[in-house]
């Protein structure tokens, strides 16, 4: 069957999530999974938990683990990359430095971790190194890129290497939040979501064969204020989401609620509270401001630490305790569905990030778009989705496309000045000197020595 390599397997929670999907996909039993991570201790925990989990369900899946990426890539059919180079500590330090220079909550996207540090250098370098290894060792393997920045990271591989790559995100499932808020049966909803990663839009929304956009409009007019006054509501139906919809004419989905919305939703904590209330991962009155605010984001990082510590303890306990804490259920991710569709020639429609190749009008062919695709033994074919409204293209998508090009051009041309000029479009920038000081300070940090040498 398939030979699947998971790069960054030391994130045991993510490894377990994919393993559950693999166990539930019996058509892939007989596959081999190779876990790769540079942290031997975390890798051993992930391997031990995975092996015990498979044994408990008598799943015919074999495992190997290695800290040597090149050895791990031997014979790979699919390479799933979940690497966050350096973890979150340097990124949070960069956020604080940016705030000292006048950039509240950091530069880049709404959650600065998406970019992997200044200019996305560490993530882009890792992916280019990984792609070079794949070209030599497993040239026919598919790279399934899942670590942020998915947009820039997957795009640099498909443009500048011979590796076949696809980007995976779960933000499109935000359509379910919209449907459930409206009281609709999700099983009766038909949808189409189109855009760039974290900049996706609900282009078609139908319920039992009828256009369901009027149901959104009715909810906004008749129910939204009452729901918002309660202080607790899903981010996907927050005042910020509705404000963005009113401006652009299409409803933002998933991370687009924050990332594609206007800058004034994020000027300070009070603005975040106004536009996102207690929405996000935590529905608590003592943590208003949405997923990107200080309280919720810090809790997210703390929860990641707690979850890892929990898995460390479960590694020492009986298998029953592991299964009780982490029951066998689908993760909702698409990685294993891609593998199953291609290996077993099961024609499956998924939402993936692929080179445009004419699927979305007005976007160059070599730019990755997040669109519905058909996956089968023939590979991955994007579906033609027409064009987005001019309001969305001109005021949201094209500025995001320019940011992609600037990030990739800065990396490929080793151009520090481009990193500075990118900040000139930020409404918080007051002068070229302010932007230059911030970039120089970030690149002067010890963890950015490689980036400082790269960007001349």
Distance between the termini: 47 Å
By DSSP (H or I, 4+ residues per run), the number of helices equals 19
State the major sheet. Answer: 6 strands, parallel
SS-based class? alpha/beta
- Main-sheet strand order equals 3-2-1-4-5-6
CATH topology of the domain at 3-168, what is it called? Rossmann fold
* Strand segment count: 13
The CATH class of the domain at 3-168 is: Alpha Beta
CATH superfamily of the domain at 3-168: NAD(P)-binding Rossmann-like Domain
Gross CATH architecture of the domain at 3-168: 3-Layer(aba) Sandwich
- The percent range for helix content is 40-55%
Low-confidence stretches: none
Whole-number mean pLDDT = 94
Query: What share of residues are in beta strands?
Result: 15-25%
- The value of Rg in angstroms is 22 Å
Strands, helices and their partners?
Layout: E1 3-7, H1 12-24, E2 32-36, H2 40-56, E3 62-66, H3 69-73, E4 78-81, H4 89-100, H5 121-137, E5 142-145, H6 150-160, E6 164-167, H7 174-181, E7 189-196, E8 199-207, E9 210-211, H8 213-222, H9 224-229, H10 239-248, E10 251-253, H11 256-259, H12 269-276, H13 294-314, H14 319-325, H15 335-343, E11 348-355, E12 368-376, E13 379-382, H16 390-413, H17 416-422, H18 432-443, H19 449-454
Parallel strand pairs: 1-2, 1-4, 2-3, 4-5, 5-6
Antiparallel strand pairs: 7-8, 8-9, 8-10, 11-12, 12-13
Helix pairs in contact: 1-2, 2-14, 5-6, 16-17, 17-18
